[in-house]
Every structure is written in C-alpha cells, then in structure tokens.
Write a structure and sequence with these properties.
The structure holds 2 protein chains of 2 kinds. Chain A is of the alpha/beta class. Chain A has 15 helices and 23 strands. Chain B is an all-alpha fold. Chain B is flat, with a radius of gyration of 15 Å. Classes of the chains: A alpha/beta, B mainly alpha. Chains A and B meet through helix 2 and helix 13 of A and helix 1, helix 2 and helix 3 of B.
Chain lengths: 536, 81
Amino acid sequence: MKIYEYIVVGSGCSAAMAAQTLVDANREVMMLDVGATGAAGKGYIPDGDFLTLRKTDAQQHKYLIGDDLEGLAWGSIGKGAQLTPPRNYMTKFVDQFEGVKSSTFSPVESLGYGGLGIGWGLQCWEYSDADLKAVGLDANKMRAAYKLVSSRIGVSATKDDASSYTLNNLNNFQPSARMDESHTRIYKAYLKHKESIQKKGFFVGRTPLALITVDKDDRKAYKYKDMDFYSDNDKSAWRPWITVDGLKVHQNFRYKDGYLVTRFVEKDDYTEVHAIAVATKAKKVFYCQKLVLATGALSTGRIVLRSQGRGGETLPLLCNPYTYIPCLQPSMFGKAAEKQKLGFAQLSFFQDKTLDDKDISIASTYSYQSLMLFRIILQLPFNFVDARLIMRYLMSGLVILGVHHPDSISPSKNLRLVEDATSPTGDVLAIEYELDSSTKKRNNKREKEFVGIMRKMNIFAIKRINPGYGSSIHYAGTLPFKDKAKGLSLDPSGRLHGTKSVFVADSSGFKYLPARGLTFSLMANAHLVAKRALRG
Amino acid sequence: MRNHPSTLRYVDSGLAIVDPESEVRHRLYVMFAILESNAEYHDLFLTRKRPPLYVIVVAIVGLLAVVRSFVGVVILKAVIR
C-alpha cells in the first residue's frame, strides 16, 4: 500500500494554500477531492467584454441562461441564486452526497474543483487584532501569513479612510481596479459628507480584492470586461484552481479527483482515509502519514463526527447573517451601459460606532449590469413588458448593498449527523440555526443605519431582502479552537484534539465569525496549519 | 387568454400582484430570458443614454403599469368566479 506523506482533502481556498505550503517545503502531497468541473475557467466562454459578446455571440445563451435553462432560478430567492451557469458546477453532486436537513438553515456547499472559491467575491480583508483574538488566532503569525497569501494570490487595494479596517499593515498589494461611474459618484458623495458620516461611526473605502491589476506570472491584469460572474479568462481574478493547476507540475504533488472523503482512522504509523468514488459509489481507502482536512467547516464537521463515532453529538455552527438591499441612485438613471466595468464589490462601508473595531457590521456595494434584467424583473410587481421598459431606464442606477453581521457561538446554532439510508454516506447533516431576539434587533437597527448613510450619499433603498440563514456562504466554528482537549475541538495550531496527525486547515476552528469576509483569513490560517503539520 | 391574447399583459399584471410564482408568469419569465440572451434582441434589454426628461416617459409607463395591475386583478377575480 502506498502511504503518502500528506493528504490534503479538498481543493478550495484553504486546501490550495495548505497544499502549496507543503509542496514548497518539498513534501510529498496528494490532494484528494471530488473535483467536479465546469465551464468558467476552461475557455468555454469566448474572450471579450460583456457588451460586445451580447451583441455578437450567437451562443451567449449557453453561459447567460444555460443549455438546460439552469440559470433561470424560479421562486423565492434562495441559496446560490447568484451563481451563473458556468459556475453552477460549484454545487454539482452536493445534494446527492452532502445532504442537509434543516427548516431554518440553507447552506451552500461545494464539491467542485476549487470549492466555494469558484464563486468567491474575492474580498480580501484582514481581521483586526480584536477579531483575531476572538477567533482564536495568533495576531503576529497571522499578519505574516496575510502577507504571504497576498504575494501568492495577488491582492489589489488602496490606502484610504477604511484601510485600518481592511489592510491593517499589509503593504504588498497592487493598485485597486478603477471604479465604475456609479461608484465614483458614491465615493465623491462620501468625501463630500465625510465628516458627518464618520461622526455617525461609518468609514468608507475601496474593497481589497484578489484581483490583479498588473500582470503576475501567466495571469493578466484585469481588463474591465464585466464578465466576472461568468468566466475566469485571463485569470486576473484568483481562483483556487489556478494555484492547484500550478502545483500539478511539481513531482511531489498529485491531484486525485472523483473521491469524497467520508472518514479517517488513525493507526500507529499512518492514517487511513476512507472515501467513496462519486461515479461508482465504490469505497476506497488511501493512506498517509499526516492528514490535512480543508473541506470547509460543514464537511469537515461531517468527516470528524463520522471518524470519531460521535454522529449524534452536536457541534456549534457560525454563519454571518446576511441581508442585501437593492438601492437606486437617481443621478445614474438613463445612462448608457458601460463597456468597461468592474463586476466585483467596489466600496466597503464599516460601521464602528465605538471606534474599537470590535463586533462591527460591514456592507459592500456592487453595480448591476452583467447579471441581466431577467434576474431582477421578477422583483417588480408589474407585467414583464412594462417592467422591462422601467428597469431598462433604472438599471444603470441600481446599486446592490450587501450587509454582513458578525456571529458568535450559541446553543441555538448547531449541527449533528443523523442516519439516512438513502444517502451514499449513510447520513445527513441536521442543522438548527436561530438568532436570539437581541441580535436580530441589533442587526435590524444596523441595517437601517446603513440605509440612512446611503441616503446621505443620494442612494435610496428599495427594500431589505433577507435570503435566509446560510446565504452568506460564510461558515465556521464547528470544531472551535481550545487550549485543552474538550469535546470535539482543535488545538490552537489546528491539530484535532485526540489525534496525532490530523490537522484542520479550514474555518472549523474559528470561535467567532467577524463580519469581514473570512476567506483571506482562512487562507492565511491554512498556511499556518500546514507549517505546523510540517513540524512533526 | 388563448381566445383573447390581448388580455395577456393584463393577466400578467394581475398575477404579478396576486400570484407572482404562477405557471403563466414562469413561462413568460423563461421567454423573457431567452429573448434577452439572444444577440438579435440584446439591445432591447440594455440601458441606453436617455435625456433627463425621459423620466416623464418612465413615470407614465409606471402609472400605466399600476393601472394594468388593477385591471388584471379584476379580470383574474372575474375569471376565477
């Protein structure tokens, strides 16, 4: 039997970072992954900007609505509604292999090549010192790790009023991409009313993104094609598959797809990694000296519960509550569609009334052009003909404000495994998630304050839409960091308590989930966990 | 609706209020998306530069849309009865 030095499970953001650290240290690494693939990064979509493709490409329906109309979500807005057909493979096989039972929580999980990073919004925020302490991570080590991750993936950012909330002491970044006309106006309005806005505890700045604006290796600088929701052509936006594809050229790295890891068994000298082949459902065992789990907090929770024979035990669950608010910017009504445009978040709003960067809420703004009229037309209480005429005029002035709130561990948020004979794994995840009334009240009040600040900048909210618990796609906390072994938990370096050689490199250990997106932090942590795994 | 295709816009308006997820609305939605993702018709769905006074046209369209919704709801109620 072949015993690999390291097996890394998953191919998402944290798995890619952990694997790169191990490969760079000349260790033998096998990445074990389901690895469903799709169109976004494979040249399926012609090269060109959104407006030109709309005008010229006779096959545009393939990526705009999908060959099987899979891009046409119908009914109430739910999980993954923002996924376009070329990125749909992110959730392929998930319903079949990663069942969830819950009346309150609807998670988005991925078994795709690149994991949830396939649809990541690229926001790269460093956690504050207060955040890192609450999360259970070492601030000094994390600062160095952020720099390393930034140099690997390429981050573009700007030093501005919000830098202390976004960059901390990060300095190895490229210039931010140009804002579109709508955001240029919003930012001008902010600068004009800056004093009064800051007095209310709000700070506004450019959103740091894993998007390069200067060529880096074989990746091209961002070209403002506004195809960000559809394709990874040019590779200007970092996706995990870019790193994993790069690792494949190394002799000491092997990528094995088609397998879902279900559990592990530690033996004296090695660890068995049990998996199911997704195509045939046949079982197979792989062997390694050290195992690095990086499948996301929910999947890692499943694997650990099964492996420890504690399926009925409940694990905590963290998830950022999320609300999005479509807004109108009247000064942009009746403007022509922009040929060169940035589709990612452009500005971030930080609400910090106590000026201590603790437990703050965050909002990001997006313009709406390339996601097409049909996605929003259903929200209007009019017939389709009139709605088209109205929205065609208003769309250039449509700004989407996405608000994230922090989350803390509480007994009303948990998960456990329950038996299910119909599932190939024999179980599904039962999730309970409910916020207490004081948190709901706080979040509601903060959202109203965000709306008030937007009004000051001549942006007017239409309505607040809550897509339901789980919709932020930010999950953590299932195996919280603990200094001493207690329940199912990780030691501060990411090793699973009660094991010798099983490490967890995703967000499972986070004891608190700041409102800032977690991806940049989980990548930095994954690097640190891999470094710890190298030490023996 | 088959006998009176001209009522479709009104029925759609009424359904947008009383049953936005109805089968009729679903079919119209699919047709809308197919047209929008067709190079030949793309221009009908993209924003274009309009003079400031165009807001009056949009306001009139909005008002008519509201009227159609009322008429649509009445038609639906009459049909259901």
